[in-house]
């Protein structure tokens, strides 16, 4: 399996501090933000990684990360997203890199306490389809929200005004090779972007989407409030812990019925 870190965008919600640097290069406690999602992939056993960057300061990512020596990698691949076409558009740039293999995709501002190795191993057992990770949150309207009925995901709605559940779809996704065909079927949303939620709903319609509940805390770091929360959480407990003996070893896996 290959890994993709989506670290483009302008970081407009963090202006003015992102006017002179990429959001994903901002510090979260003792490391640049982008270190955390890369380490998440490495901890899941993924060694081939592509970083999708963007903006006016993309070169700083190359200067910071190089070939990935800090993560024990021999090489990191890079590509550039022009403009703000959305998460799905950014993922579409990884098609050549994926080369027909499944991918684990993580948003560049997502930070987790533990690891997703169990979810990755479970996904490898699927013959096809996708897997998403969910986390119960209090501010679900900020995220893509999964509507769950019993053991089924009925739908996923992007940033709903009235969420149908408190289960946020966190920014870690596992896809088979058909994801790129699905991206080509997308039409821009009202925000003018290609939405990853629409991609996930294609898998829901096919009945090939599974999900797991993430163990431990999770946060993004895309607003001043969540950036502060990320700093505090990492300072208090650390992040990307390799050994977790809690619920992650008994992760809840559900297959969406047709």
Structural class: alpha/beta
- Rg, alpha carbons: 17 Å
| Proportion in helices | 25-40%
Q: Quote the distance from N terminus to C terminus.
A: 26 Å
The unreliable regions are: 245-258
The biggest beta sheet is recorded as: 10 strands, mixed
pLDDT averaged over residues = 88
- Tally the beta strands: 14
Q: Give the overall shape, derived from the CA principal axes.
A: globular
Supply the number of helical segments: 8
Order of helices and strands: EEEHEHEHHEEHEEEEHHEEHE
- Share of β-strand residues: 25-35%
What are the main properties of this structure?
26% strand; 8 helices; alpha/beta; 258 residues; 14 strands; two-stranded antiparallel sheet; disordered C terminus
Topology (SSEs and partners):
Elements lengths: L1 E6 L19 E2 L2 E2 L2 H9 L5 E6 L3 H8 L11 E5 L5 H6 L2 H4 L4 E5 L3 E2 L4 H8 L5 E7 L7 E6 L2 E7 L8 E9 L3 H6 L11 H11 L2 E5 L4 E2 L4 H14 L16 E2 L3
């Amino acid at each position: 399996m290959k890994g993709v870190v989506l670290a483009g965008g302008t970081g407009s919600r963090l202006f003015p501090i992102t006017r002179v640097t990429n959001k994903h290069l901002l510090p979260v406690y003792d490391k640049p933000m982008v270190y955390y999602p890369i380490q998440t992939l490495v901890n899941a056993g993924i060694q081939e990684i592509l970083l999708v960057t963007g903006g006016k300061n993309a070169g700083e990512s190359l200067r910071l990360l190089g070939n990935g020596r800090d993560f024990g990698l021999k090489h990191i691949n890079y590509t550039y997203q022009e403009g703000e076409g959305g998460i799905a558009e950014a993922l579409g740039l990884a098609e050549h890199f994926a080369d027909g293999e499944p991918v684990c995709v993580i948003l560049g501002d997502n930070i987790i306490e533990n690891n997703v190795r169990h979810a990755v191993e479970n996904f490898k057992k699927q013959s096809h389809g996708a897997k998403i990770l969910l986390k119960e949150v209090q501010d679900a309207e900020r995220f893509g929200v999964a509507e769950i009925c019993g053991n089924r995901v009925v739908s996923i709605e992007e940033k709903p005004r009235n969420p149908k559940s408190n289960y946020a779809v966190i920014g870690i996704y596992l896809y088979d090779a058909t994801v790129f065909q699905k991206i080509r079927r997308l039409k821009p949303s009202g925000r003018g972007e290609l939405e990853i939620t629409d991609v996930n709903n294609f898998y829901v319609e096919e009945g090939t989407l599974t999900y797991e509940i993430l163990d431990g805390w999770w946060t993004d770091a895309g607003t001043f409030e969540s950036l502060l929360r990320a700093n505090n959480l990492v300072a208090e407990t650390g992040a990307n812990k390799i050994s977790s003996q809690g619920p992650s070893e008994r992760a809840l896996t559900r297959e969406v019925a047709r």
